[in-house]
Write a structure and sequence with these properties.
Elements (H helix, E strand, L loop, with lengths): L8 H50 L5 H31 L8 E4 H13 L8 E6 L6 E4 L1 H17 L5 E11 L3 E10 L21 H7 L5 H11 L3 E7 L3 E12 L20 E2 L3 H13 L6 E2 L2 H9 L3
Parallel strand pairs: 2-4, 8-9
Antiparallel strand pairs: 1-3, 3-7, 4-5, 5-7, 6-7
Helix pairs in contact: 1-2, 2-6, 3-4, 4-6
This protein binds adenosine-5'-diphosphate (ADP).
The site of adenosine-5'-diphosphate has 19 residues, from helix 4 and helix 6.
Length: 319
């Protein structure tokens, strides 16, 4: 009889050591994340006090110089809150603490509400804000509306920030799907400053901006796109960017959703238009295309004219 004996003590001890190191690393990550969450909360509470008081102070009698100083305090306070929220979001996702929702929602309403909010961010910028809705898209889907809204807000806010003339367009298209599922592409396209090719690969890295003059001119922390990419990953999508310096940028992401059947008619909140004659008059090609798709998806066949005079000429020709 032959017997082999090996001493497993060393392997056993090594394994124990590895387990201990892993446990320590996890516990360090947990305390770091707890520390960040507590710290952001502790900073946010007094900052809200400062911002609230500046708003009240702005309603009192102030001379122009004082008003200017207080507006700067308020703007700086708002920026600080944004940075704190971004750092907290970033660490939450990093430590796997960001929850993912799975619920039924109306995609078109989500886009409309997001646009209502974003149109208030245009300030005095004279740029157009459009969305182009693919009539083949289902309205009711199942997925994570909160994360989707946050991704859209981050990308469209950036597009508005870096565009000085022209437009910002959200182009939403159905890529493929079955009766149960649908895959959707969202493209946030702008006619802004664009991004140099050599800088594109670092955009999604935390704290990175195209160059230091960006911070001076536009502010920001360079965290927005890193968070956006993490959010897209978290809900199972992919994101990439295409851009030409001086021409504009496109941030594109694709997501899959469960499709929910509805019995509602397609008119939706346009049912008050049923029975009326509708015509679209616009000189903008982008606006015409968006409105054409919008009415089409709601079941209206709408003629489109380039100008009021074209509309009148066509109307006078007996049909
Ligand atoms: P932030 O805007 O807070 O600096 P982001 O992570 O959102 O951080 O963006 C990182 C950088 O990417 C920006 O500073 C800017 O240089 C560039 N960038 C992002 N979006 C656009 C865009 N639509 N057009 C041009 N540059 C952009």
């Amino acid at each position: 009889m032959v017997a082999f004996l090996t001493d497993q003590t060393a392997t056993y001890l090594r394994q124990k050591e590895l387990e201990k190191a892993k446990e320590e690393a996890l516990s360090a990550a947990r305390s770091k994340s707890e520390f960040l969450a507590t710290m952001s909360h502790e900073i946010r509470a007094p900052m809200n006090g400062v911002i609230g008081m500046t708003s009240l102070l702005l309603q009192t009698d102030l001379n122009a110089e004082q008003k200017d100083y207080i507006e700067t305090i308020r703007l700086s306070g708002d920026n600080l809150i944004t940075i704190i929220n971004e750092i907290l979001d970033f660490s939450k996702i990093d430590f796997g603490q960001m929850e993912v929702e799975y619920q039924t929602f109306d995609l078109e309403s989500l886009v409309e509400e997001t646009f209502d909010l974003l149109s208030t961010h245009l300030g005095d910028k004279e740029i157009d804000l459009y969305y182009d809705w693919d009539p083949k898209l289902p309205r009711m889907i199942k997925g994570d509306p909160t994360r989707l809204r946050q991704i859209l807000i981050n990308l469209i806010n950036n597009a508005i920030k870096f565009t000085h003339e022209g437009y910002v367009l959200l182009d939403i298209n159905r890529l493929q799907g079955t009766d149960q599922e649908v895959s959707v592409s969202f493209e946030v396209k702008d006619t802004g400053i664009g991004i140099p090719e050599s800088r594109i690969d670092r955009l999604f890295k935390p704290f990175s901006q195209v160059d230091s003059s960006t911070t001076r001119k536009y502010g920001g922390t360079g965290l927005g796109l890193a968070i956006t990419q993490k959010l897209v990953d978290l809900i199972g999508g992919t994101i990439w960017v295409e851009s030409k310096e001086g021409i504009g940028s496109s941030f594109i992401f694709e997501l899959g959703f469960e499709r929910i059947e509805t019995t509602e008619d397609s008119y939706g909140n346009l049912s008050f238009l049923v029975g009326h004659q509708i015509a679209v008059i616009s000189s903008s090609e982008v606006a015409k295309q968006c409105l054409h798709h919008y009415f089409d998806s709601h079941g209206f066949a709408v003629p489109i004219y380039r100008s009021a005079s074209e509309f009148l000429i066509v109307k006078e020709v007996p049909g």
